[in-house]
């Protein structure tokens, strides 16, 4: 007896056939699932050449369907595929209240008459953002350094959750000469052991670099900016 689903593809219900009746048609959300499985299913090396034909046969789709699934994923999916891992940004939390910080001024902070410019107000704020790697939630804690005048901000990441350790693993490699405690960062082997304990397949350095870049690009969104601006307005 042959196994019609050797790679454990997700059962999905087609919504009909395409215009030429050459392949099944699927709802957009199911097309995303088909696209994701091309990257997220772990395939033994000796079966790599069998995988894509098996996927097309199981869903009764063609290469055009796969191309369309990629377009749909890019257009409406709320996650990204980084090598063989899916990452998605979740909700943010603001923990505690604004803490005002003192700023020291130098000569550059005086005007042409030598009069000191208006003080720039600065605050720190502890925040947390949820991220999901292969649907496993991993928190990311950080401190925001916020400035009332100007639109700049910086962050200081903690070293508690696995995602935070991945951040410092990447930064430690690129800025080892700047970090006094770089030797305290996790190793690639240690990170992969912790990933395995969460049921997440191992990553190489390039994958971790991509994950950390995604985190940094998505650490703040419009809703969070609005909430931060309200806090800053109330603090003035």
| Low-pLDDT residue intervals, each spanning 5 or more residues | none
Q: Name the helix and strand elements from N-terminus to C-terminus, one letter apiece.
A: EEHHHEEEEEHHHH
Strand tally is 7
Molecular shape? elongated
Key words describing this protein structure:
236 residues; 5-stranded antiparallel beta sheet; two-stranded antiparallel ribbon; elongated
How would you describe the overall organization of this protein?
By secondary structure, the chain is of the alpha+beta class. Helices cover 38% and strands 23% of the residues. The protein is built from seven helices and seven strands. A hairpin with a 5-residue loop joins strand 6 and strand 7 (153-157). The longest helix has 14 residues, at 63-76. The termini are far apart.
Provide a short characterization of the protein structure:
38% of the residues lie in helices and 23% in strands. With 236 residues, it is of the alpha+beta class.
Layout of secondary structure:
Elements (H helix, E strand, L loop, with lengths): L15 E2 L6 E2 L2 H13 L7 H12 L3 H14 L2 E4 L2 E17 L20 E12 L2 E12 L5 E5 L4 H13 L13 H10 L7 H13 L4 H14 L1
Antiparallel strand pairs: 1-2, 3-4, 4-5, 5-6, 6-7
Helix pairs in contact: 1-3, 4-5, 4-6
């Amino acid at each position: 007896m042959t196994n019609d689903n050797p790679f454990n593809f997700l059962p999905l219900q087609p919504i009909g056939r395409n215009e030429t009746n050459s392949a099944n048609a699927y709802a957009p959300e199911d097309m995303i699932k088909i696209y994701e499985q091309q990257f997220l299913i772990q395939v033994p090396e000796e079966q790599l050449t069998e995988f894509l034909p098996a996927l097309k046969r199981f869903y009764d789709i063609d290469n055009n369907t796969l191309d369309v699934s990629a377009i749909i994923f890019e257009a409406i999916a709320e996650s990204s595929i980084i090598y063989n891992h899916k990452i998605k940004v979740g909700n943010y939390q603001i923990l505690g209240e604004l803490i005002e910080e003192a700023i020291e001024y130098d000569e550059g902070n005086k005007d042409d008459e030598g009069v000191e410019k208006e003080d720039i107000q600065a605050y720190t704020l502890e925040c947390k953002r949820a991220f999901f790697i292969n649907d496993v939630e991993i928190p990311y804690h950080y401190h925001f350094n916020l400035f009332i005048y100007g639109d700049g901000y910086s962050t200081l990441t903690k070293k508690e959750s696995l995602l935070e350790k991945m951040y410092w693993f990447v930064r430690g490699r690129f800025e080892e000469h700047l970090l006094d405690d770089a030797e305290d960062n996790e190793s690639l082997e240690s990170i992969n052991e912790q990933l395995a304990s969460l049921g997440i397949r191992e990553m190489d350095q390039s994958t971790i670099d991509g994950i950390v870049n995604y985190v940094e690009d998505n650490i703040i969104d419009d809703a969070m900016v609005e909430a931060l601006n309200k806090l800053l307005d109330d603090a003035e």
